[in-house]
């Protein structure tokens, strides 16, 4: 695993008119308007189709805009949270229509900076995914134990400092000893500074942004659980 998730697609197809309106509402932090746009656009279809066809493309485009310096990181986070709130009304936690498979978990390894994790978590949940949050300051021993116990299929590891990024290699190796099939996405500052570092950890992919991580999860999800 690995190279097939490295070169994720760039600019996707243009947004629909509803997508453009939703993006404008999200970047303007207009919760009521965003909720109305989503509900109106999705009235005739299933919530899952709505998420796939409207919400995810918009969040991915906002993520790409952040990569190009066109929006602030806070706007990425708030957009994800607003969509998460709306999705929760359409697909309440525990709903059988949510994506319970593949089984996904996220953790901040050995530090307590949680902003990146919270952004990824909000965007994934807005995409209809159920995600187990192992929190921050997670040790290698604790992470290995939790992933094996919960039979996680896709693990997201966030780090801020280089020592923690290097410790991810030990965690991934130990998890793979027990679960060779697990897919791992790493993210955080050390991997942006050194583009080759994620490969040295044994991860399958590096999520440079929320949109890239969402896209990698969707690709891996199709490979791990094609009959969703």
UniProtKB/TrEMBL annotation:
What domain of life does the UniProt record list for this protein's source?
Answer: Archaea
Record bears the keyword Oxidoreductase: no
Instruction: Name the family.
Output: Belongs to the methylamine corrinoid protein family.
Q: Which UniProt keywords apply?
A: Cobalt, Metal-binding
> What PROSITE patterns does the record tag this protein with?
B12_BINDING
Source organism per UniProt: Methanoculleus caldifontis
Protein name per UniProt: Cobalamin-binding protein
Indicate the segments forming the B12-binding domain, all copies: 100-228
Q: Which InterPro entries is this protein grouped with?
A: Cbl-bd_cap, Cobalamin-bd, Cobalamin-bd_sf, Met_Synthase/Corrinoid, Meth_synthase_dom
Q: Which Pfam families match?
A: B12-binding, B12-binding_2
PANTHER family linked to this entry: METHIONINE SYNTHASE
